[in-house]
Amino acid sequence: MQIMKESFGELDHKPVFSFTIINDQGVEVTAINYGCIITRIMVPDKNGVLENVVLGYEVLEDYLSDSNYLGAIIGRVAGRIRGGSFELDGKKYTVAQNDRTNHLHGGIQGFDKVVWNAKIIEDGVCFSYESKEGEEGYPGNLSIEVMYTLNNDNEFLIRYEAKTDQKTLLTVTNHSYFNLSGNSKKNILNHSLTLKSDEFLELDEGLIPTGHIAEVTNTPFDFRLGEVIETGVTSTHPQNVLVGNGYDHPFLLNSNHDNEIMLKDSESGRTLTVETDEPAVVVYTGNALQYNKDVQDVRTSKYLGICLETQGLPDAIHHSQFPSIILDKGQRYSSITKYKFGIKR
């Protein structure tokens, strides 16, 4: 195992570094300490050709102007909070409204837009950040660590650990856009996705859960036996049309750490298996991917990547039937998601 540290720029007089973890198989994961952004993951195809399977930029300035959250850690709360407000113990809190009147992905300057501390650890990198009380409107001083590690089984693990000195909200995810074709040669419409999920959340016009948990049976949301992404893009189902023709929906997972999420590109032979202890995954097919800069010399466009955001349910604070995303004082937040890369010939 090899870990390389290089300069990647500077922001507000704080140095930004890139860290590249290389295992004995030649698989590489590169991340920077600005937003804990994963900039590159190099994995082989069925012919042994190493190529990048996530969307990413080459220079810091492109990330500073990015509006797509490429590769970033999202928090304090991933997804939307209706009305940009919530109550805890009878007290109302107002958080940044950066998606019309709603709160999205931690606010105007969420975890994705700050410089984290970073240190090299065994087989990876540990990023840490102190989110002060009142940041983006959230209560409590929050200490969080995000650990990226890689092993020789081509498993990339993200571990989250956090604690707060006051009751607050927390559900964190990673917003990498995967494209298993390699170097973004093609879009992800012919990627096949398999999910161990019987239910998904219905969304309203603001893309916020209505509270209704819908069955996937006999809908384009049934990925239990595997389905290509294009199915949802061409679908006339109102929920597919609502999000811009595709998917941007939370799926409730039937099991955890049980090969519950599998993505495959038959042409390259690459596979990605995601396992997590989170209750859900938000599947986002890049329906609103906007052009900022080229990625790997390819123009950013709709369906160029797919996000598999393992997390708690969006807007859970307003739905008592959803698993809680409240973190109490003295309680330890701990979560792990594993990404295993493979080949199916």
TrEMBL record:
This is Aldose 1-epimerase. Pfam families: Aldose_epim. It comes from Cytobacillus gottheilii. PANTHER family: ALDOSE-1-EPIMERASE, GALACTOSE MUTAROTASE. SUPFAM superfamilies: Galactose mutarotase-like. InterPro entries: Aldose_1-epimerase, Aldose_1/G6P_1-epimerase, Gal_mutarotase_sf_dom, Galactose_mutarotase-like, GH-type_carb-bd. Pathway: Carbohydrate metabolism; hexose metabolism. It catalyses: alpha-D-glucose = beta-D-glucose. The keyword Isomerase applies. Keywords: Carbohydrate metabolism, Isomerase. It comes from the Bacteria. Transmembrane segments: none annotated. CDD domains: galactose_mutarotase_like (cd09019). NCBIfam families: PRK11055.1. Its EC number is 5.1.3.3. The keyword Isomerase applies. Belongs to the aldose epimerase family.
